[in-house]
Amino acid sequence: MSTFSQTKKELEQQRKKLKKEIAQVNSLLFKEQKKEKNVLEDLKDLNQKIDVRLRLIRTINSEARLLSREISKNKKEITKLEKELLALKTDYASMILKSYKSKSQQSRMMFLLSSQNFHQAYKRLEYMKQYTSFRKKQGEEIGVQTDLVKKMNDSLLYQKQVKDTLILSEKDQKEKIEIDKNNKVKLISTIKKKERKYKREIQNKINAEKRVAEKIDKIIRDEIAKANKIANAKLINKPKITKKNEFVLSPEAKALAAKFELNKGKLPWPIEEGLITRRFGKQSHPTFPGITINSTGLHMVTQRGRSAQAIFNGKILNVLVTSGGRRNVLIQHGNYITSYNNLEKLYVQKGDNVTTGQKIGQIFTDKVSGKTTLIFVLYKNTTKLNPASWILKR
């Protein structure tokens, strides 16, 4: 397969993936019934939709440029083939004419009988056979070349149709972006009228998230200390292992952690289907760039009524109940821990062993925004890692 074909295939796959993502954004962020108007959430959702559409347009443009290059290359190839075909036809016509003239002047038999000796007659016979064979071969070559030119023309026509479709798709996305941008301007105007109030709300939410994160961090430290105390108690007449904020692992736990590491980038998502609405790490607030969000993990939105699923075999380390009755489940995989926050119903309890893909609890659906959001965090001992680097790319 050529480099062009590989790139083209990748772009086609990317375009399909982005179209699916737009469908998910519309379904998960805009079709859910909302009890109240929340301009900050609406603006955030609109920004995400615009961002996906812009990425789709960039992909379409790249695909269209590649097709333009392929069309240009094919046109040159067709011109070359047509010249070769014309030369073949001219040569063949000349040969047929000479053959016709030869037949009109003397028959083949006379040509052979006029030979001076047997050897010359044999040579003339061989010449006539070769001449006939050459004419046949040249006729076949013309047929092959004609078929090749036709196929190239058909391919060129198809590529032009694909390119036209891509251009129409790009135009459609641009029109939709313009509508979204107009709605964005209106939302920003509304927000600016009560900017101080909204900033206060955001800061309160950030502080609440920070408090939950601190509680989870403390639970993990306490669990590590407790587990290490039990491990050290088993070491009779042996030097005690002291590792601050790191699990002392048994051979089985080490093996489990090693398997977890081997699956980096291939681990399943903690939700069956959905999309990421907030990435990991420090980032500017989408509405107020002056406010910084420190995201402990990934915020994933899914369909109402869906459950969180364990991404790997492990053991329920602890369950935290936050204010508002929301639950956070911690699963230990050796010295790795996965955290599933914002659950309303649990199907597991502390100490349970779980397997990859097992449902651990139903995700809470916010009655105001209508969103079903899972907050997924990954730790190695007490250090937070970027979960996006560990789960499958979608």
What does this structure look like?
The chain has 394 residues and is α+β, with helices and mostly antiparallel strands. The protein has two domains: 191 residues, Orthogonal Bundle (Helix Hairpins); 140 residues, Glucose Permease (Domain IIA), CATH 2.70.70. Helices cover 58% and strands 16% of the residues. The chain is built from six helices and twelve strands. Strands 1, 4, 5, 6, 7, 8, 9, 10, 11 and 12 form a ten-stranded antiparallel β-sheet that branches. A two-stranded antiparallel ribbon has the order 2-3. A hairpin with a 2-residue loop joins strand 7 and strand 8. Helix 1 packs antiparallel against helix 2 and helix 2 packs antiparallel against helix 4. It is elongated and about 115 Å long. The two termini are 24 Å apart. The model has no long low-confidence stretch (mean pLDDT 82).
